[in-house]
Automatic annotation (TrEMBL):
Pfam family, one: Cyt_bd_oxida_II
Homology family: Belongs to the cytochrome ubiquinol oxidase subunit 2 family.
GO biological process, one term: aerobic electron transport chain
Keywords assigned: Cell membrane, Electron transport, Heme, Iron, Membrane, Metal-binding, Transmembrane, Transmembrane helix, Transport
Residue stretches spanning the membrane: 6-32, 74-95, 115-137, 157-183, 195-216, 222-242, 249-269, 297-320
GO molecular function, one term: metal ion binding
Protein name (record): Cytochrome d ubiquinol oxidase subunit II
Gene giving rise to this polypeptide: cydB
NCBIfam families named in the record: cydB
Compartment annotation: Cell membrane
GO cellular component labels: cytochrome complex; plasma membrane
Amino acid sequence: MDLTILWFWIIAFMFIGYFVLDGFDFGVGMSLPFLGKDDTDRRVLINTIGPVWDLNETWVIVAGASLFAAFPEWYATMFSGFYLPLLLILVALILRGVSFEYRHQRPESSWKKWFDGLIIVGSAVPAFLWGVVFANIVRGVKLNANHDYIGTLFDLLNPYALLGGITTLLLFFVHGVVFVTLKTEGDIRLRARKLATKAGIVTILAAATFLAWTTLAYGTVASALLAALAAALLIASFLANLRGAERLAFALMAGTIGLVVLTLFSSLFPEVMPASNNPANSLTIANASSSTYTLGVISWTALIGMPVILLYQGWTYWVFRKRIGRAHIDLAVH
């Protein structure tokens, strides 16, 4: 396989890993006002992702570094054209991380409430803006002959992109709430299952509309099949949650998110940044990639490093696999 094609799909894999793993972190953060009746409930929710959220977040760093190394033209155009939304994502991630560490440093309820609010915002903003960014990449943006973005911020806030943002926000929210059912016990687990059911209906409608729009306007035969499979897995996850099959529901949600990302990348291929104003200005895997030598070097690096990362992450999840509940928080306090 040509290395440029290989790295296009490696980048897709990196973003699948990021959206699946940090996606449920976002969902847990957004669930605080719905499932956190008191401080103990909120601590239970935060502790479900406490040991893994920072590890999950590193996937976006690896994805960005891989994008820079393999497709520097794509990286430059994306990060300059989408500077404001990507900056907002970065600020939100920083605020969320700081809040996880600082909310328990003082006993005052007002202190904790302030940082809980930052966790909610710091989870919702990236969940929404990542969908806006990737929907715009698929739709295409205004580029000049030098592949520079020449549109405005308002061009990025088009109906298709906004629907993409709503879809990712809802997918991550349900993904996170299902994760709560998998990781907690007692009343909060039951409430999370009911919330996942209610939110799942809205999510199915939003995702089906977005995937249909993507397929009809920008899709290929391959992306259409992937979109159909993503929709099927989302419905199957909803039904599994109704039956109380928590592991299956979570696995199917992870598969749904992965297939949505694959749908978007399949709609792009072989382009990486379509020019909506002039197709001749589009970035493709051919004119946006690094040299063959560079791709060869980073391929060996990925071959050596990626199995280590996956094994370490798998080991981390295995160590922290047990459920937690209010009793564990009360025990920790005393």
